[in-house]
Amino acid sequence: MTDKYKYTDEELIARFQKGDENAYTELVKRYRDRLMTFVYRFVSDMEQAEDIVQDALVKVYTHKHYYKEVAKFSTWVYTIAGNLAKTELRKRKRRQTSSLSTLGLDDKDYDLPSVELETGEHIQGEYTEKKIQEAIQLLPLHFRTVIILRDIQELSYDEISNIVSVPLGTVKSRINRARLQLQEALKEYK
Amino acid sequence: MDRYQFEGYISDYIENSLSIAKRKEFEQFLAENPESKVMVESVRSTMSQLKHLPAVKTSDDFMVKLQERVAKQRDFVPVQQDNRRPLIFGFTPLTAGMMSLVVLAIVFVGYELMPSGSNPMAIPPQITTNNVMPTPVNTTQMQSVNTESVLADAQEDSSLIEEELQQISPELESKINYVRTQ
Known about the structure:
The complex is a heterodimer of chains A (190) and B (182).
Chain A: H1 9-17, H2 21-43, H3 46-62, H4 73-94, H5 119-138, H6 141-152, H7 157-164, H8 168-186
Chain B: H1 3-14, H2 20-32, H3 34-51, H4 62-82, H5 93-113, H6 139-181
């Protein structure tokens, strides 16, 4: 590939389906951090999030021929990652580990990603992020998915509707309710 | 507009996706309910905080680990493809075999149940009026049981003969008398 930045995601996956492994590498580079942000915000565990992202990208590799050009590549890969993340959370629940939602807000420890800020802002920023992450974990899974995709990943309503396989109106309603719940949970920290 | 509707329209208002008429109605509700403005601003602030959360990055050895996993999968995939079995009329070989056995069993049972003259087992035995006495299955066992009944029958038979003789003897007697007189 002479200039990989010329290719859209859909062109890259088409090249990969024909056997161009460099196209797969480029797709991984484009999506690894985006998927990591999405999955981490969903499961709130760095190690687990990275495993899930790896699983998702391995699935892209082994199931490349399952992708059809009808949908966007991003829709497909987010769907895979989202399903794997939900499965992992269900397994976690079945293993009867303490659910984050059953603990008090101050009882949780998080691996926070490093944030490059000024010292004073750094502490404040870390605190705010911790509280926001805690509040996200209080949301039910179907609210959590859509609000992460909309307000953190900044995907369109249409794309979110395709990813979660739910009508557009339902997606909007869930996002609205999730925002109301979040702002309620974050009120006391403001 | 009531409180429930107002909350339902908050996101649309913030994202400027309300129709003009609905927007006017929403803003009128805001004017009449000052505390609702606080809620709108709170939601707007939450959205902004989410948007500005730092991105999360994968670890430095992410690509190395991924390539190792992909290399394993690359070796594994062809073996899985060879294990696919061809379908028989859309069924797996096991299912097709079991269905064949069921069909054969139905055919066999149906053949056995068909009425046939040469097959005494197929036709249930008919009871005739001449068959008064049951056929003994085991002669030794039935012998002692039948002794009394045989004697009783013999006695019955002899009485029948006497009755017949009595019926015949008046005629014979008259003939004898006729001959004598001649």
